[in-house]
């Protein structure tokens, strides 16, 4: 992808621009600290970088280019439904005749959202909907509220309860909440919103516009790429495995997954589902195979009583075997397979060994 922007909430997803690392809203002290690097960071910078494969040209050709001087791109997906992206993150806004409804406010381009809306319509922002609680997707909410005082902020009850405990001015507490599901209407817009739990414990939203066949469901996949680290940071792999069929149940032809520039298609969902299942099944097989020779070797080296060291050797071996298999099968089909395959295999292994177990036939 052209720009990988955003995520203050986790190490790894950070703001990048064509000119290099961009630190959004960094305090002056932090900027000074960065200008005087510590010795350990200097040493880390001198360490050799991994040899990751380049992005696949046929896949990256699908990405919508974003003018780095402007910092964002707006496209009309269907009548009155617009996507705004900086190349790394996505949000939607809908013109209704009675005001604009904005879905998510990523901090990586939140400062541009009101301007982007004004360039598109004379309607002002009336509502902001949170898809889930993660900072990298809604951490621009405070900026939107500052620029549009008095807007209604909508979220599912679980997300609202979580945010009410955080005292986070970048994620203002919702003013309207609902439990499980609701149909949000304003003017010409109808959006059916239902909670799921594939990603974050307080809940994630399926946001569906039935009259337009547009679906928004954030942080389970990205267009033409494998999921992010740990199968997109899922906290419930059982729910994550099932989410792809739940997505395909909807009658949509455009999916907004929250990352990269261009939206996804039904075929993209099927492809990533195949990848995820191809991670899970081999890890189950590998874990059930005979590891007695490796365990004996580890016990001899570390001592039979050093159970953590023995367990670590076994898990690392299983993950490496699974990762090598996945890389061999998927490197020509999706971007970033070699970047995250080991992370995905670890997540699948933990799920099978501790959550599912050998007695399960699921």
Characterization of the model:
The protein starts with 15 loop residues before the first strand and ends in a 6-residue tail after the last helix. With 362 residues, the chain is α/β, with parallel strands linked by helices. The radius of gyration is 22 Å and the shape is elongated. The longest helix has 24 residues, at 307-330. The chain has helices spanning 28-35, 39-46, 57-60, 110-120, 135-138, 141-147, 157-164, 229-233, 237-249, 266-288, 292-302, 307-330, 337-356, and strands at 16-17, 20-21, 73-78, 81-85, 90-95, 100-103, 125-129, 152-156, 176-178, 181-186, 189-196, 204-209, 214-216, 254-256. The relative contact order is 0.11. Helix 10 packs antiparallel against helix 12 and helix 12 (307-330) crosses helix 13.
What overall form do the CA principal axes indicate? elongated
Number of domains: 2
Average of the residue pLDDT scores: 90
Distance between the termini: 36 Å
CATH topology tier name of the largest domain: Metallo-beta-lactamase, Chain A
CATH evolutionary superfamily of the largest domain = Ribonuclease Z/Hydroxyacylglutathione hydrolase-like
User: What amount of the residues lies in strands?
Assistant: 15-25%
* Helical residues, percent: 40-55%
Kindly provide the name of the CATH class of the largest domain. Answer: Alpha Beta
> Can you list the strand order of the major beta sheet?
3-4-5-6-7-8-9
- CATH architecture identity of the largest domain: 4-Layer Sandwich
The major sheet is characterized as:
7 strands, mixed
CA radius of gyration: 22 Å
Separate helix tally: 13
Order of helical and strand elements:
EEHHHEEEEHEHHEHEEEEEHHEHHHH
Content-based structural category: alpha/beta
User: What is the number of strand segments?
Assistant: 14
Uncertain segments of ≥5 residues (pLDDT<50)? 1-12, 14-32
């Amino acid at each position: 992808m052209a720009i990988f922007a955003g995520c203050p909430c986790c190490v790894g997803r950070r703001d990048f621009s064509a000119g290099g690392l961009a630190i959004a809203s960094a305090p002056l002290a932090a900027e000074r600290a960065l200008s005087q690097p510590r010795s350990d960071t200097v040493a880390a910078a001198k360490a050799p970088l991994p040899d990751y494969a380049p992005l696949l040209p046929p896949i990256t050709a699908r990405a919508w280019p974003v003018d780095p001087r402007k910092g964002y791109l707006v496209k009309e997906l269907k009548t009155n439904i617009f996507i705004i992206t900086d190349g790394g993150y996505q949000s939607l806004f809908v013109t209704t005749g009675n005001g604009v409804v904005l879905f998510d406010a990523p901090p990586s381009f939140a400062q541009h959202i009101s301007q982007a809306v004004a360039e598109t319509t004379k309607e002002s922002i009336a509502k902001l909907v949170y898809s889930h609680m993660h900072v990298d997707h809604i951490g621009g909410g405070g900026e939107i509220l500052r620029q549009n005082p008095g807007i209604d902020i909508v979220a599912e009850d679980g997300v609202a309860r979580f945010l009410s405990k955080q005292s986070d001015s970048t994620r203002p507490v919702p003013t309207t909440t609902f439990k499980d599901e609701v149909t949000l209407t304003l003017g010409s817009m109808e959006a059916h919103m239902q909670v799921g739990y594939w990603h974050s414990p307080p809940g994630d939203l399926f946001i569906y516009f039935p009259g337009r066949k547009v679906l928004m469901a954030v942080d389970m996949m990205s267009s033409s790429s494998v999921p992010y680290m740990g199968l997109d940071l899922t906290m419930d792999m059982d729910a994550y495995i099932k989410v792809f069929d739940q997505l395909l149940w909807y009658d949509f032809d455009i999916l907004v997954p929250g990352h990269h520039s261009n939206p996804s298609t039904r075929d993209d969902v099927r492809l990533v589902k195949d990848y995820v299942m191809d991670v899970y099944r081999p890890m189950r097989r590998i874990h059930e195979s005979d590891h007695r020779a490796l365990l004996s070797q580890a016990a001899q080296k570390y001592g039979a009583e050093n159970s953590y060291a023995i367990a670590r050797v076994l898990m690392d071996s299983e993950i490496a075997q699974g990762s090598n298999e996945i890389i061999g099968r998927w490197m020509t089909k999706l971007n970033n397979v070699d970047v995250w395959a080991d992370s995905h295999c670890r997540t699948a292994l933990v799920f099978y060994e501790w959550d599912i177990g050998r007695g399960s036939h699921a």
